[in-house]
Every structure is written in structure tokens, then in C-alpha cells.
Amino acid sequence: xxxxxxxxxxxxxxxxxxxxxxxxxxxxxxxxxxxxxxxxxxxxxxxxxxxxxxxxxxxxxxxxxxxxxxxxxxxxxxxxxxxxxxxxxxxxxxxxxxxxxxxxxxxxxxxxxxxxxxxxxxxxxxxxxxxxxxxxxxxxxxxxxxxxxxxxxxxxxxxxxxxxxxxxxxxxxxxxxxxxxxxxxxxxxxxxxxxxxxxxxxxxxxxxxxxxxxxxxxxxxxxxxxxxxxxxxxxxxxxxxxxxxxxxxxxxxxxxxxxxxxxxxxxxxxxxxxxxxxxxxxxxxxxxxxxx
Length: 292
Hints:
Blueprint: H1 14-19, E1 38-41, E2 45-46, H2 58-71, E3 77-82, E4 85-90, H3 92-100, E5 105-110, H4 115-128, H5 134-146, H6 152-159, H7 163-172, H8 177-185, H9 190-196, H10 202-212, H11 216-232, H12 239-255, E6 258-264, E7 267-273, H13 277-288
Parallel strand pairs: 2-4, 3-5
Antiparallel strand pairs: 1-5, 3-4, 6-7
Helix pairs in contact: 2-3, 5-7, 6-7, 9-11, 11-12
Family: Belongs to the ParB family.
GO molecular function: DNA binding
Domain ParB-like N-terminal: 38-127
């Protein structure tokens, strides 16, 4: 376990601490910029390919564009050197709106940032502005875990949310893409999606939820019935299966990792899924009683 890669220290400071007080100052697109902010051609900036936010509301973007055309860009865009140009770390929406407003230059702050810091800041900005849908947020957390070695505990501290919140969002990625799309489009909400996780024929169930306009509680009953029927071959005697599923969710929330319980007449197994060696270390420490 001593060879496990330790998680990199996370920013955990938020955008204000990173940019300093200067980021809160109004910035005009003409005249002298405040110290630390420079004006840069719009064409010199490129979006970050892996930025957490993938959907930009066209109506909201047009409204921002009209505001920028009248008042200018009021908050600088955070960028980092990237080849001969600069890559946007935070502020892609402002950059897109500035293009629509036909601005030639925008105010920027340049910082030397590595890939992990860049992704963390982009995630923080979008979460603070509530710009990410649940699936985008879950995808971002998964990337921070798999690519940059964060644990769920570290993520919870970074974004100032509970570990159970992180775990619940990550489980959304177990749903088929078509069901995730229903969540993104607002045809089902988080409660519906969580109830459907692990259910058999989940796409059919999700379609039924949408068609009938079922409540979250109705969806839970529908998913429970489908799970019971699946585990008993339709005999209706699988009440224990719902209890096991509830126990799996409870254990997953406690340890912050996916838990699977298999059982039968002669016993069963409890499986804990981990993605990184740091997570495996954490499980071993919990089992042995060592301090985390």
C-alpha cells in the first residue's frame, strides 16, 4: 500500500482566492485595464476541450451577449498559456458571448496552471454558478477521481459538498445514456434517476415514468417491483431484494464507494468497487481501524 500514489493537494480555495480581489473589479473593454489584467484578442483564446460544461443555453448566451455589447466584459477571463495562444480556464461563456457581441478584445488574467488545476477551477466556477447539470457534474467528479487521483473525501472538501452527494451523483453514471439524457432535459429529476439505478430494463421504466408523470415515490415503488420480479422470476416473493438494495445504498454512502451484495441460501459476498489505489488504501484503513 505504501507504493500507492497519493492524491495531489487540491485547490480548495475557490475562484476568488485564486484570482484575488482584482477579479471582482469591474473591467471595461476600452481604456487601461487594472494591474494584473491585460486585454487580449478574442481570436487568441481557445476553449478547453475537457471543460466540465458541455451545454450552453442559447437564450441565456444571447442575453449575456447583449449585456456585454452595452457594458463590456465586467469580469476577466482566466486563461493559461497553451502553445502560441491561450486556453480558457474559466469564463468560456463570457468569451462566447463576447464573440457574439463582435468584441475584438476581452480582459484576461493569465496563470500558469497544470491540467489538474485547470480542470478543478473550471469545475469550481461552474458549480458556484450552478451552470452544470447533474450528469456533467458527475462526469467531472469521475474525471477528477480516475485521471487526477482524487478520493471522494477530497472532492467533497474541494467543492464544499457532502461525500454522499458525490457518491449519489457518481451512481447516475451507471444509468444508460438515454436515461441520463432524460435527466439532462429535465423530464425526470434526481429523485427519479436515483430510484431507477440498478433496476432491470431501466429504459422501459424511465419511459413509463415520463409517460405517466410519476412522482419520485411512485417511481421508487415501480423500480422496487421490477427488481423483486426480476430476482424471483415474476413470482412476487422477492421482498428481501429491496432490503439488500437499500443496504447497498447505505453502505455506499458510508464509505463513499460502490458496494454490491450477492446472497443465497448458503451465504454470499460483499464487493466494494474502487478506482484508484488511494481508494483501496482508504478501504483497508477502515477495515483495520487505522486512522485515515
